[in-house]
Write a structure and sequence with these properties.
The complex is a heterodimer of chains A (105) and B (192). Chain A has 105 residues and is mostly helical. Chain A is built from three helices and no strands. Helices cover 68% and strands 0% of the residues of chain A. In chain B, helix 6 packs across helix 8. The chains are: A mainly alpha (105), B mainly alpha (192).
């Protein structure tokens, strides 16, 4: 058992040491030419044109208008609902509500 | 050409500056890339990307670190970007195979272990070590590669990784402990 444990430790140490035996690689003499080719084939990022900027601003304005409109209509709806609810409460408190049972003798 | 002149040449977009930078740092960059991806073709492709990034971002270099540190930092960042990209692609391919789509477009590597600096008699062991290094967390992996493969000092690693000296010491200690643990586990399985 102790022997096998020692064997495992030896293997682990040998494997870890294998990293130190890696020889550094020399460069590639054609690397610069390849980089040049790559730079030529990769289009540079163009700054946004005035047309794109206007389009972006318009889209942002439309989105803002839709959102503001949505929020406004939601509050209006809530306000109306609250008013109707207050009237209903007063009516039921003073017995002014119309129920079907009142007419069915 | 000294560092200041080289930097000025790079910022002015001079071809001579670009060529000098590639001549000075290509071996270091390729070796770093090989530290993450032990396949010659992949490492050289990545090295090209590193230099393209260096040329395109030279205007942003403020000279707070040395040119060498900046080159190493960009090389490490590019390698980590590629590590994350490959992980994402593998996950995508897995999900595609689950839903029955063909993942043939997911070509993420050009082949098997092919490190030109590894002698044939060490190939098996080094390949095994690489498999275990791949499982380390990103920071531990980077510190281990910079220290053991590039032979950089702790101070240089601090500057490249932008962490403190104690962090580098701790990262290296944990990287070695984790590697020993996983390798021990691997050899124990082999014994059974």
């Amino acid at each position: 058992m102790a022997k096998s444990r020692q064997h495992i430790e030896d293997e682990v140490n040998k494997t870890l040491a294998s990293f130190d035996q890696i020889e550094p690689v020399e460069g590639n003499p054609f690397l610069y030419t390849r980089i040049q080719e790559r730079m030529r084939s990769t289009p540079r990022a163009q700054p946004a044109s005035a047309y794109t900027a206007i389009l972006r601003l318009s889209l942002a304005a439309i989105l803002l208008a839709v959102n503001v409109g949505g929020v406004y209509s939601y509050y209006k709806q809530v306000q109306q609902m609250e008013q109707t609810q207050v009237l209903d409460n007063i009516a039921s408190e003073y017995g002014l509500t119309y129920e079907e049972s009142d007419t069915s003798f | 050409m000294d560092e200041k002149k080289l930097l000025a040449a790079l910022k002015s977009g001079s071809e001579e500056g670009y060529r000098t930078l590639v001549d000075l740092y290509q071996a270091k960059v390729i070796n770093i890339c090989l530290g993450y991806f032990p396949i010659q073709q992949d490492a050289e492709d990545l090295a090209q990307e590193v230099f393209v990034k260096l040329f395109s971002s030279v205007d942003k270099f403020r000279g707070e670190a040395s040119l060498g540190t900046w080159v190493y930092r960009i090389a490490v960042n590019k390698c980590l970007e590629m590590v994350r990209y490959r992980k994402r692609t593998k996950r995508m391919a897995f999900f595609q195979s689950l839903v029955g789509l063909d993942g043939q477009a997911m070509q993420i590597s050009s082949g098997q272990f092919d490190h030109p600096g590894v002698a044939l008699e060490n190939k098996e062991r080094t390949e095994l070590l690489y498999e275990h290094i791949e499982k380390l967390p990103e920071k531990q992996r980077t510190a281990f590669i910079l220290s053991r493969l590039e032979g950089l000092s702790y101070q240089e690693i601090c500057a490249i990784m932008e962490v403190s000296l104690s962090s580098v010491e701790s990262l290296l200690f944990r990287a070695k402990q984790n590697l020993k643990k996983t390798l021990r586990h691997y050899y124990e399985k082999q014994m059974i």
